Amino acid sequence: MLCSVGHVYGQTNLFDTPHRSSYAQHLYNNGLYELAIPEYLQVLQTDTSRQNMLLLMQCYRFAHQAPKAKQWADRHFKHKPMPHPICNEYAIGLAETGLYDTLAAAHFWANPADTSATNQLKISGLLFKEQYQKAQQQAATKAAFAPYQAIAAEGLRLKSKKVWVARGLSVLVPGAGKVYAGQWKDGLITLVTVGVMGWQAQRGFAAKGTRSIYGWITGTMGFGYYLGGIYGAGRAARVRNARLHQPIKEKTLQILREKIEVRP
Question: What pTM was computed for the model?
Answer without folding.
Answer: 0.77
